[in-house]
UniProtKB/TrEMBL annotation:
Gene3D superfamilies with a match to the protein in the record: LysM domain (3.10.350.10)
Keywords assigned: Coiled coil, Signal
Residue ranges that the Swiss-Prot or TrEMBL entry lists as coiled coil: 50-77
Domain LysM: 192-235, 242-285
Name of the featured protein: LysM peptidoglycan-binding domain-containing protein
Keyword Membrane in annotation: no
Entries under Pfam families matching the protein: LysM
Length: 287
């Protein structure tokens, strides 16, 4: 069963004020270096907490996409939804961090709440309680809200980094959508032809170039599967295909909107069985 409880983002920074009768003992001064270490440690704690949540959600989405049956996909979705619900309740790792991190925490937590509420709407849609238009409106509202919170989070993170001279951990770079900047593979140039090498077959060439033996034979007017070393073959991918690599926060609706296409068209050309996508997935935008 899906939880239908209302979720309210009320994560606030807590402060403890201590009073006592002993006033003669003064705390030892803390060096600037020690303070920087503490600010760095708290930022790392914050980043690790939320990076784990988002990565786990992405893993569930990837599993749903690879599910072979609708029943299997729904079972994984139940696990995804349950995990998100519990993640929202687990505020302990970040609730006592400094006030500036609490501001960043509020941005991300509020975004997760909006995602959770959209998932509730998706469940209601599956149950027939919401129309296509109502679900699309809920999705658009969620995306706009998350984008706004993400912008505030990135601004606060930049300010924190400058003020306290800290560095971004791998988890923090991930939350800031900068993980791809660490190792960005160079795109391979697309070619229109392929020169047959020793050991090649039409099947191996077709597989490498994401086409079929039938298409290769038609394109090159081959009457049989026989090919020769040094022979130049035309490839079916001679016409370039525009693609999009899914990033954190992307949905089929947001991608389709930016690309000037539709969700149904994206699902059709990418052979998707559902609206589920995952970070790092490459989607064709048009044929």
């Amino acid at each position: 069963m899906f939880s239908k409880k209302a979720v309210v983002a009320t994560l606030l920074a807590t402060s403890l004020a201590f009073t006592g009768s002993v006033t003669s003992i003064q705390p030892a001064p803390v060096s600037a270096a020690a303070q920087t270490v503490n600010y760095q440690k708290e930022l790392n704690t914050f980043a690790a907490h939320y990076a784990k949540i988002f990565r786990t959600l992405e893993e569930y989405n990837a599993k749903m996409e690879k599910a072979k049956t609708e029943k299997e996909a729904m079972k994984i979705y139940d696990q995804y939804f349950e995990y998100l619900d519990k993640a929202l309740d687990n505020t302990a790792p970040v609730e006592k961090l400094n006030k500036e991190i609490q501001k960043m925490d509020e941005n991300i937590y509020n975004s997760l709440v909006k995602i959770y509420n959209y998932e509730l709407d998706f469940v209601y849609y599956q149950m027939g309680e919401l129309s296509d238009d109502e679900l699309a409106e809920s999705l658009e509202y969620m995306l706009d809200y998350v984008d706004a919170q993400d912008a505030l989070f990135k601004k606060a993170a930049a300010s924190y980094k400058t003020k306290y001279k800290v560095t971004y951990s791998k988890d923090m770079l991930y939350l800031l959508d900068q993980e791809a900047d660490v190792k960005q593979p160079q795109p391979q140039p697309q070619t229109n032809t392929y020169k047959v090498k020793k050991g090649d077959t039409l099947y191996s060439i077709a597989k490498k170039n994401k086409t079929t033996v039938k298409k290769l034979k038609e394109l090159n007017k081959l009457k049989s599967d026989t090919i020769k070393v040094g022979q130049v073959l035309k490839l079916s991918n001679a016409v370039s295909v525009s693609t999009h690599t899914v990033k954190k926060g992307d949905t089929l609706y947001s991608i389709a909107k930016k690309a000037g296409t539709t969700v149904s068209q994206l699902k059709k050309i990418n052979n998707l069985k559902s609206d589920r996508i995952y970070v790092g997935q490459k989607l064709k935008l048009k044929k």
